[in-house]
Amino acid sequence: MNIFNKNFPNIFIEKGRLYVKTDFSNSLFDERIVRDGNNLFREWDPKRSKLAAALMNQISQIGFKEDSTVLYLGASHGYTPSFVSDIVAKGFVFAVEIAPIVARDLVIVCEERRNMIPILASANHPKDYETVVSKVDIVYQDISQKNQVEIFLKNCDTYLKQGGFGLLALKARSIDVTKQPRDLYKEVKSALEKMITVVDFRELQPFEKDHGFFIVKKR
Ligand SMILES: C[S@@+](CC[C@H](N)C(=O)[O-])C[C@H]1O[C@@H](n2cnc3c(N)ncnc32)[C@H](O)[C@@H]1O
Q: Which pick of 53, 59, 74, 199 has the fewest CB atoms within 10 Å?
């Protein structure tokens, strides 16, 4: 196993495949678990995870440290959140999901981990989870809603520490099907820059069509 990037904790690459170091030997998502010496690694599929796709497309920074606290919006069944929980092995993940049916799977993922809790709520109403969520180092969002940029900025405003990083997986077609994704990425960049500093951007093909991935930093 080779370190993927010395600035990104617990992320590895081997023969073009991405892995995350883990403490768990059981595979909840049918992912391959590989042993190397005393260490275990979970294979991370960039076709299932926009964060993995952004890494494969050479995003320059992600802001994660091993002890980062993360507010994860749009946690779904917990696939990418489970990898984030391994990456921030000494940190914590607040995983917000609106849909009760997928949140059932998320609860199972959280039950075996000490550093991740599920929150059944809408990210559109950040105040609804203010009694549970603290200020965080990272806000990660993967929500295909028309107002996904507004939701992201509201949560960064409420929960992101100054100097903290925001990671926004943007589904262009959910915002406006009539617009060319590249025109939309430019509009979103301008909207983000009014409130926050945009530090990097990647399109996610060939792993995801019409998706962009922004990294921002709170001023
Ligand atoms: C594309 S999926 C997320 C996949 C997940 N991030 C992963 O990589 O494993 C988007 C999720 O966002 C959830 N969602 C949509 N609107 C939401 C909202 N307002 N608040 C919280 N979750 C929301 C959906 O129910 C869905 O599970």
A: 199
Domain that holds residue 64: 47-217
Q: Scan for tokens 């969002």, then name that residue.
A: 141
Closest CA to 57 of 205, 183, 184: 205
Domain count of the fold of the chain: 1
Whether residue 102 has its Cβ less than 6 Å from ligand 1: yes
Assess if residue 28 is contained within a domain. Answer: no
Nearest residue (by CA) to ligand 1, atom 4, is: 76
- Å from CA of 37 to ligand 1 middle: 36
Contacts 24+ apart (CB under 8 A), 180-183: 181/210, 181/212
pLDDT, tens digit (0-9, with 9 covering 90-100), for 2-55: 999 999 999 999 999 999 999 999 899 999 999 999 999 999 999 999 999 999
Ligand 1 centroid–CA 36 distance in Å is 33
pLDDT score at 41: 98
| Global pTM value | 0.97
Q: Determine, yes or no, domain membership for 26.
A: no
| pLDDT over 90 (residue 176) | no
Ligand 1 pocket test, pick from 85, 98, 152 with the greatest ligand atom count within 8 Å of Cβ, gives: 98
